[in-house]
Structure formats: C-alpha cells, structure tokens
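Continuing the series of single-chain predictions for the mutant panel. This is the parent chain; the variants come on the following pages.
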Amino acid sequence: MDMEAAAAGGGAGLTAWQAAALSGAAGWVWAASYFDLTRRTRSLAQPWVTRHVHAETPAILRFQRMQHRLLDNFFSVLSCVVSVPFYTGFLPLLFWSGHGKLARQMTLLMAFSDYLGNVVKDIVSAPRPCSPPVRRVTATQDEKEHAMEYGLPSSHALMTVCLMGYMLHYVLSNGACDSFMITAGLSLAFLQVLLIGIARVYLGMHSLTDVIAGICLGVVILAFWLVVDDHVDAFVVSGQNVTFFWASLSLLLCFAYPEPEFPTPSFEFHTAFTGVAFGIVYGVQQTYSRFHGPDAALILSQQLPLLTYVGRVLVGIPIILAVKSCSKALSKWLLPVMCSTLGVPIVSSCYVPALKTPGSSSSKSSDPRQAGYLQKVFSLFPRKAYDVDTGIRFVQYAGLAWSVVDLVPVIFTYLNL
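Parent structure:
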C-alpha cells in the first residue's frame, strides 16, 4: 500500500479512532482494577504452568548433561541477539542505513511484543526451572536481570519469532526473490528460532513449556502486526495528533501493566521499550520528510557508500549515549520537582535517594491539603504513590531514541555524512 494513500484512507475519523483507543485503554485499567482480573487470571493459570515447569525438571537435567564450555559460550552469545544492548546498537544502525520504514516497524514491533510478553509473564507469575538442581548460566549482566523475571513465556523465543519473521517479510516484500531465496530465508528464520529455544533450555533459563508459549505468542503477535503495519506506519509519518496520542497511550500502558506476585525487572524493560517507541515516533513525526522518506540514501549506494556509513556509526553512537545520559540526569532533577509542584505523590526505588524512604519529601506530597488537580486525576488509577523511576527511565530512553532519528541526522548533514 502506498504511504500517501494509506494516510489518506486513515485520515477520515482518525480523531474518533484515537478517542476510542484511549478510552478503551482507560476503561481496561479501571475494569482490571475493579474486578481484580490479574489475581483471578493468575489463580487459574499459575498452578497449571508451575506443575508443568516442575515436571520438566528431569528432562532439563538430562539435556544439560551435554554441557560443555564451548556450548555455554555459544548459547550465551546467541541469547544476546535479542537483548537490550543488541537493540540499542542494531536499531540505530538500521535507521542510519536508509531503511527507515523497516527500522520504524522493527522498533514498534519490538516494543509491542515486549510489552505483551512481559504482561503475560507478570500476570501468570510462573517460576523458571528450579536452580538448583537445574544449572543456570548467566554470563552477562543482561542475562542476570532476565533471570529475575518470571518464566512463561520465553521473551527470547517470542522476540526472535517477531524479529526474524518481520525481517523476512520485509525482504521478501521489497525485493525480487526466487524460490531459492524464499526457502533459504525461511530456513534461516526457523533455524534461529530453534537455536534460541534450545539455548534457553540449555542455559537453564526456561522450560520447554515456556519456550513453546513464547513461540506461539510470537506467531500470533507477528500475524497481527503484518495486518496493521502499513496503517501504523502511515499514522506515524503523516497522521493527526500523533505525538499527543502516543504520549497518552504510553501513559495508559504504564497503568494497564499488571502487578506481579513479586516485583521483577519486566516492568523496567517495558518502560524502556515504550520510551524508545515514543522517542522514535516523535522524532520521525518531526523529520520524516528531511531524513526518513522514500528518497533517503541507502547503504552501499552512491549517496551512502560504506565508508560514509562507518563514519555515521562512529559519530552517531557516542552522541546517542551522551543524550541518554543527559536525559537521565535532567529527568532525575526535573520530574521530582514537577511532581512536587503538582502535588502528585511519588517514591523512588533507586534513582532519587531522597525519595526512597517513607519519611522523604514524597510523603509530604501525599498530604490532601497539598493535592493538586493532577493528583485528583491520578487518584482514579489503582496506585496511590507513583514510582518516579518509571518516568526517569521513560525519558532517558525516549531521549536516546529521539536523538537517533532527529538530532544525529541533523549532525550528519552538517558533517556531510
């Protein structure tokens, strides 16, 4: 579908669609809290999943008898392909290579699949395979954080299905491919998913049930995304009220996220991905015609030779990391001040030491005499005190993503890169 035609087709009634979507999300937040849907769903799903995970322990132990140092290293490196550091490096490189649509869709699809996967994790709150006796290999800090999450579904399996599936769809849809290339692409995607599934079991991170659930959920999400991707992209690049709608949706998604049985890093991962999605949407909305349209220079073309692209990478990566650091520092100072001024009660789990204890200034902001209009609005949602770290994390990753598609391309033009 042509981009302009898609935008024109979606323009009619767009405001009504936005209102319906936001109202539906807000209604879900209220209904889930009022009817205690998370606890009810967990009481049905958790015992069944836990029983299957424990029953698979002997099979995992037999599989891990083939352990070898080379296999440990191979599967640990393979698991990094769908880690946060991988996306931090891969997605900017994709944007700067001229494949803007693929980069936008990959970013939004990863954010969408990460959110749904983590929602299911924390709703079910099912354990990972017991360690010991299962040997759990966590070679990187990223893996150690993932090990603190619940088990079902396997995020690595889910994200691999979405990542490989959409890349294969994009290549086959935008190039002349014969039957050999199609077969090779399908085989490569299948092999990658298979190896990731094996890796998660071998490393002691998941049971077979977790992996199968991740693959199945990934297939469902990918199938849905292939139906809506052109409409989503048309909305992002030329829709109405895009920034306001996406900011409102991001806020509602934070409130719609279920509370797990015990705290895990899953919500932090979702917040980071949601911030990245917002930063990309905002930046592309501002600079699409200048940097990200169909006429953007493609890597290995005369307009963007390999040496120039390498220059982009060497200049761009340090800049986006610096922007992320500055965004974090600015939001750590600004967000608590804003919340205090507006009378919104806040706490901090790690970023703001003064707000960690009940006796900090956050307790003062919960005084009814100091409550502002915004606090009355937030009181409609299930939580009474809000973790300011969520906002800080969102802003820093939104700043990083914005710099990828807005600030850094501007610098490229000044440097003739």
